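Q: C-alpha cells for this one, please.
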Amino acid sequence: MIRKNPRGDLPQVHPDAFVDPTAILCGLVIVEANVFIGPYAVIRADEMDGDGHIDPIVIGAHSNIQDGVVIHSKSGARVTIGQHTSIAHRAIVHGPCTVGNGVFIGFNSVLFNCTVEDRCVVRHNAVVDGCHLPPGFYVRSTAQIGKSTDLTSLPQVSVSASEFSEDVARTNNDLVRGYKLIQNEF
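A: Here is the predicted structure, written as C-alpha cells:
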C-alpha cells in the first residue's frame, strides 16, 4: 500500500522496483531502481521535527527490504539505505540511520541512530545502537554494539560472508524481475 503521510508527502517508487502489495510505504519515501520490498514490510517517513521538516527515507538501487522489515525515523531524521544492500526478514532500521552499499543486515537485527559503512555484515539478532561501523566490519549474531564498544574487537568481513551477502542481493534482484512479470496475474 502506498499512502500519504499527514503532511501530504507521497512515496516515490521507481517503475523498475517491486513493492509487494502487502507492504506499506508511507510519506517521504524514495525507492530507487530494481529494489525489492517484500511482504509486510513497513517503511514510514511520517514524523516531523519541531519545524515541520521531514528528511526522506531512501532505499538505494538494487537493494532489498525483506519480509516484515520496519524502517522508520524519529522526528523526521534521515534514513538512507545504500545500493546492493540487504535488510533481512523482520529487521528494524530506525533513524537517524545510514546504511552503506553492499551491506547485509541479518534477521531480527536492530539498527538505531547509527552509521553502518559499505560492505559491513550485521548477522542475525544483533543490535547496533548509537555508533559508527567503519567499512567491512563483521558483527556476530546476537552481538550488541554501541558507543562504548571497542571496535578493534570486531573482525573484518570474511570472503565467505561477503559472497553470501552478494548472493542474497543477486537473488533478490532476480525476484524483482520475476515478480514484475507476474504482478498483474491472479
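A few notes: The two ends are 17 Å apart (CA to CA). The CA atoms of residues 52 and 76 lie 8 Å apart.
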